[in-house]
């Protein structure tokens, strides 16, 4: 197995649909400019409430990617 060096960054995705969608939105957007994303770790989940209902979700993730 080849040795890798990883760099990690934190991202926060949001969604009106749910937490999984918020994570996917963050990963998809980051993938436009960050190459070699290999893993993620959920750091924090929170939501915004309006009128007694969840209006949108925010999920902060740590993303690791290999360096070229």
Automatic annotation (TrEMBL):
Q: Which residues form a coiled coil?
A: none
Superkingdom is: Bacteria
Q: Name one Pfam family in it.
A: Dodecin
Q: What protein name does the entry list?
A: Dodecin
């Amino acid at each position: 197995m080849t040795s890798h060096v990883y760099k990690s960054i934190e991202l926060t995705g949001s969604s009106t649909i749910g937490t999984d969608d918020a994570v996917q939105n963050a990963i998809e957007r980051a993938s436009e400019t960050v190459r070699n994303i290999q893993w993620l770790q959920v750091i924090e989940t929170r939501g915004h409430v309006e009128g007694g209902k969840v209006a949108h979700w925010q999920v902060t993730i740590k993303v690791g990617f290999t360096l070229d």
